[in-house]
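hey can u check if this looks right to u? its 433 residues, i copy pasted from the old doc so theres a chance i mangled smth
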Amino acid sequence: MVYRADVSDDPDHLRRELAVLQGRLAEVEHERDALARLAAFAPKLAAQHDVSALVRDVTALATELAGASFGAWFATVDELGHRYALLANAGVSREDALRFSMPYRSTVFDGKGVVRVNDLTTDERPHRSTVQITPLDRDLGLKSYLAVPVIDRAGLVIGALMLAHTSPGVFTARIERIILGLAAHAGTAMDNARLYGDAQRLISELERTNSELDQFTYAASHDLRAPLRGITNLATWIEEDLGTQIPAKVTDHLNLLKNRATRMDRLINSLLELARVGRSRQQPERVDVTELVHETIDLLSPEHPARVLIVGAMPTLIAERTAMQQVLLNLIGNALRHAGRPDVEVRITAIDRADEIELAVSDNGVGIPRVHHERVWQIFQTLSPRDVVESTGTGLAIVRKQVDASGGRAWIDDSPAVGPGVTVRFTWPKQKR
């Protein structure tokens, strides 16, 4: 009987097989560790709003994860993708990084995908000319090359990670997948950083515009008030000079003049108040709505036989006290002023909901025709002539703007169950949004 040795019994073969398995295991462990680092890095990357720091961190991590000798991030600087700028470099000076194997010589910026070359000196691919070796490449002994596009949410190539090594075959398919994953996170993070930067610039411009508007508003109001005070004073002096000899018609005209000046002064105050809504915010505090309504009623001091009633329990919430009181002052004041009857009864009720309260201010006055329910929210809109009912026409405009700024909504209840008069409802969050 002749014994034939099985190749699997060959110690050298077993050692080779074991070495191959150990190599594959090392690759898997490296990929696992790299993916774990990438997963840990992703949240930090998403929170990074500094573009310079973002590209620097990504380039350094890509170079480390790929085991590259050199790394660089190039970005397009024009919409056609014909010009490029070096944003970050790792393992090589900026001057050298600008010169060696620029990614624009590859297909990566044309949106055709990844370029991976095992050996730049022997690359025999049909499109070999897309990667050209510069004298510096030869000086540095570069062989392995990997260029991965960085793509934004719109699908545009906004940059490329370029990696190189002095040994051939360093960048495997596994490495390519890892760097592609990093590039995907980087593209999203670049979008976020740019959006954040744009938002900060817009906020800064808005704040500057608001400041200029404040200065203009206060200057204009001062210039407008000065002649109004002069008109009122002049009318008063004429009355004093004429004394008892003043004709009744002249008295009526002077009273009309003073009333119009007073109305204009109130209108200026209302416009200033409207301009400040939503821009001058206060620290939210605990507000007992029952106490706030009583305080508001005291400020308005309705004349008998008019009455303002609190019906049912009122909640307590966290809110800007002055903003809510401004809304109540305008709504209760409007109900007293426009009811069309001296014995008007104003009723205030509240509904406590999950995360907000709903307040209603109702009266038994002449009401508002349904066709005008949206019109009355506009500035300067009144249903009665101003000489009949003194009004600036800004009250409901201020109410809606203030309620909107606080995260609620305001409307006129037009349901049949409401009955005569008008009911204005508004919601207010229990916590500051």
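The two ends are 91 Å apart (CA to CA).
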